[in-house]
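Please go through the sequence and fold tokens given here and tell me how the chain folds. Record follows.
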Amino acid sequence: MTALMILCMSTLGAEAESLTRASQTFVASLSEEQRESAVLDFDDAYRFDWHYFPRVRRGIPFKELDDAQHELAMGMLQAGLSDLGVEVVEQLRIIEGILYELSGQSPSRDPDMFVFTLFGAPADTGAWALRYEGHHISLNWTVVNGRVVSSSPQFLGSNPAEVFDGPHAGLRPLAPLQDLAFDFMETLSAEQREAAVVADRAPNDIFTVAESRVERLEDGGIRFAALEEAQQELLWGLIEAFAVYLAPGLMESRLEGVKADGRDTISFAWMGATERGIGPAYGHYYRVQGPGFLIEYDNIQNNANHIHAVWREFDGDFGRDIIAEHRAAVAH
């Protein structure tokens, strides 16, 4: 078990309590028919079947909720996310609304088809989970005995990454994930850049896509220990930018876990264009990984104006290994 997992187990109980109460209130507001759609068994294989493509999803979408239930659903997000996190996921629904209109209101682009799925009954004991998912969003929380033991996979994407026309012109929901990475790259010396850039072209998508379990990718790039202090601060700021969407206690636990595993072991690898811009020649990708976690970011589709960004944990996604240990202890 990595230090990341151990610290996730000690996540502030207050965060789990808020998420549990908000989820209990939401479930209580549902009709019997709605509850059958929204609440699945905790051991349902669909808990590991996540994705960020447009597709039919199990659960209950905004479209099937009345106004009061809509507010209660947002209450679950407010319990699991920071204020910034809630703002960003709502901005991504606005982006989806733009695609909805451009597609002639295709049902697959409907921003009201973002779905809430609960696995097991929200409670202070036992295990349960919550997923909020739609095109370009998949957020997952797993709770065991009053502790949030996992907040991953965490996927956020945006197409377009920057809106150029219409009433939302200038909107860039995931701007820090792009800007901070370029800020960091611009500080590297020629020798450091030679180590960091592992390919001239970005891949068409993140390498791990939506796999249910991930393993460490190729250990290329530049190590945290090889950076100057100011550069280390910039790289750490980029890592924080992926965690800041979570509720404060969950963010703190995630980052403390990364520190406990040793920041010097973190590596950063870049592929593609090293200059900012829009167009086919400006596609870029990076990954940041340590003993327990992986960040992937890709922006190459739609003239390099289409971001996919994910945080994964090698042992901790879905709380899988922690739950296995919990069940083994209960059986014993």
Summary: The mean pLDDT is 94. Residues 83-102 form the longest helix (20 residues). The two ends are 19 Å apart (CA to CA). DSSP finds eleven helices and 13 strands in the chain.
